Amino acid sequence: MISCSGKSVLKGIAIGKVYLFKKQEYVLKQEKISDAEAEISRFEEAKKKAVVQLDALYEKALKEAGEEQAMIFDVHKMMIEDQDYLDSIRNMIKEESVNAEYAVHVTGENFAAVFASMDDEYMKARSADVLDISKRIVNNLAGIVDGGIDSEEPVILLADDLSPSETVAIDKSKILAFVTKNGSANSHTAILARSMNIPSLVKTDVELKDEYTGMTGIVNGIDGTFYLDPDEATLEDMKNRKEAWEKERAALQELIGKDNVTTDGRRINVYANIGSVEDVEKVLKNDAGGIGLFRSEFIYLGRDTYPTEEEQFEIYKEVVSRMGGKKVIIRTLDIGADKQADYFGIPKEENPAMGFRAIRICLSRVDVFKTQLRAIYRASAFGTVSIMFPMIISVSEIRRIKEIVEEVKTELASEEKEFGNVELGIMVETPAAVMISEELAKEVEFFSIGTNDLTQYTLAIDRQNQSLDNIYDSHHPAVLRMIQMTIENGHKGGAWVGICGELGSDTTLTKTFIDMGIDELSVSPTYVLGLRKTIREI
Amino acid sequence: MKQFTYTIQDEVGIHARPAGLLVKKAGEFASTVTMEANGKKGDAKKIMSIMMMGVKKGHEVTITIEGPDEDAAAEALEAFMKENL
């Protein structure tokens, strides 16, 4: 038995035959040819075939992954048709009397080298595309078929890493799990594994040997272990764990429709955090009581201009309508710090976590803020909407926000646009907000504690700094007392209090939070039922 | 001969996708279309030569068109640049 460890990208256990996925390597040879015309027409055939393949890949990717992902194959096709690229290949065959495989390979390397030397990360990465198209033509010339798993039964696919063309080309009905030697949590393989919902490991310390194909393997995505040729005891143990895991998952499904109530009758709300419209489906599937944090930043990120009121309105409206009257708490723009969009034109800061971010940007660029508020208020006509404001440190900020909110409501009313009754709240994520939480509570209807930032600011530990991981303690008594103080003061001032940070899903603290009097916990949709289970056992 | 200059507004510059669209557009005409930017010169009907220029936001590109349908080509390409880049 061989056991290896890797980084799990999806929990679960898979047991089956291992299949080593090999990039079918063609060993390049330089050969002298006598008939250049015949060699060029061999090349033309292989090129034509590549175009047909790329068309098929484009169509497949379009269906499976959307236009964004598919576009790359269209670009590949244009690269293959590039006149300079083609001329270089044809000239080499003609003038140097070399075989087509060699001419394509060398031309590809030359073009790739030019891209690789460019002073632009994006263009540098394009050298991989040139190599990919050249390899495709060479494979066609050499008669190598790409993709394809030569097995009747589904397998645990072992690979170095998979390229975008490979992840698309592969027959997905034949895969139980992925194990890759390289790749990362954001690699194409990991993304595919998550979308297929199968256990997978990346960065696994495994060797890629031919003899592994056909061996029994076990992927344990719970602790990140991969076993090859397991002994009886391990196999038995893993079969039991697989069964237990599946039972646990099924048991959680039975909690759908049940209350979040402790054995002594304390009831709390369990909501879900989302970052996009697509997440709503997971929220509904996992039976969350509402959306406790809708991160609106994603609407602003990954684009070149500010989103318009209409664009935002459509997004909020869709989320609110699909939640069918259940509460949706939208957090206004929390950009800055680790989330940047160039078009905001925010100058580089020495210390962005303590810099120009979130509500600070909104209150100095009121037009941007108002556009978002108008969109949210208009969406509130379609369900139950709350708004919360991030990074608050003073009462005066809330008063200013409320003035702007009033202006927005007056404008909408005068334009005869409908809106509902919207609850206003704040994120409590700075020690300042905690210290004055009693005063803040009188101004708003709820608090949502952002434990990630609150921990970082309380402990003065940058959470991106890996060398501080060993002292970053989210259970630090200072953090827990901050939370307790917020809950007590919130209640004194008449505000309900929830937690939407990562600590909310830490089930070792659930009892502590309930004892403190927490009203709501908002967690990632997949944790909702697990949290419900914990609550019902308290 | 027709010529015009245009300053790139697109945040990421002429990356793969717009380069492809530009090549397609230039390919619709019989005239030769040359692009000049960053002190480099290239054929606008060839995707790799365009991408290799590494044109980014704020760069000025000069497009020169020469041939039988140069008037129509200049008009179409200028409109294309304004809309996409």
What is the secondary structure topology, with strand pairs?
The complex is a heterodimer of chains A (538) and B (85).
Chain A: E1 2-5, E2 7-10, E3 13-20, H1 36-65, H2 67-80, H3 83-96, H4 100-116, H5 121-125, H6 127-142, E4 155-159, H7 164-169, E5 175-180, H8 188-196, E6 200-202, E7 216-220, E8 225-228, H9 232-253, E9 269-274, H10 279-285, E10 290-295, H11 297-300, H12 309-322, E11 327-331, H13 359-364, H14 366-379, E12 384-389, H15 395-414, E13 423-428, H16 431-435, H17 437-443, E14 446-449, H18 451-459, H19 477-492, E15 496-499, H20 510-516, E16 520-523, H21 528-537
Chain B: E1 2-7, H1 16-27, E2 32-37, E3 40-43, H2 47-51, E4 60-66, H3 70-84
Describe the structure.
- The complex is a heterodimer of chains A (538) and B (85).
- With 538 residues, chain A is an alpha/beta fold.
- Chain A folds into three domains: 2-24 and 147-251, Phosphohistidine domain (Glucose Oxidase, domain 1), CATH 3.50.30; 36-142, PtsI, HPr-binding domain (Enzyme I, Chain A, domain 2); 254-537, Phosphoenolpyruvate-binding domains (TIM Barrel).
- Helix content of chain A is 47%, strand content 15%.
- Chain A has 21 helices and 16 strands.
- Chain A has helices at residues 36-65, 67-80, 83-96, 100-116, 121-125, 127-142, 164-169, 188-196, 232-253, 279-285, 297-300, 309-322, 359-364, 366-379, 395-414, 431-435, 437-443, 451-459, 477-492, 510-516, 528-537; strands at 2-5, 7-10, 13-20, 155-159, 175-180, 200-202, 216-220, 225-228, 269-274, 290-295, 327-331, 384-389, 423-428, 446-449, 496-499, 520-523.
- An eight-stranded mixed β-sheet of chain A has the order 1-8-7-3-4-5-6-2. Chain A has an eight-stranded parallel β-barrel with strand order 9-10-11-12-13-14-15-16, surrounded by four helices.
- In chain A, helix 14 packs across helix 15.
- Chain A is globular.
- In chain A, 41% of the residues are buried.
- The N and C termini of chain B lie far apart (23 Å).
- Chain B has a single domain, classed as HPr-like (Histidine-containing Protein, Chain: A, 2-Layer Sandwich), CATH 3.30.1340.
- Chain B is globular, with a radius of gyration of 11 Å.
- The longest helix of chain B is centred in the C-terminal third of the chain and has 15 residues, at 70-84.
- Helices cover 38% and strands 27% of the residues of chain B.
- Chain B has three helices and four strands.
- The model of chain B has no long low-confidence stretch (mean pLDDT 87).
- Chain B is α+β, with helices and mostly antiparallel strands and 85 residues long.
- In chain B, strands 1-4-2-3 form a four-stranded antiparallel β-sheet.
- Chain A binds chain B through residues 71-72, 74-75, 78-79, 81-85, 111, 114-115, 118-120, 122-123, 126, 129-130, 304, 342-343, and chain B through 10-12, 15-17, 19-20, 23-24, 43, 45-49, 51-52, 54, 56.
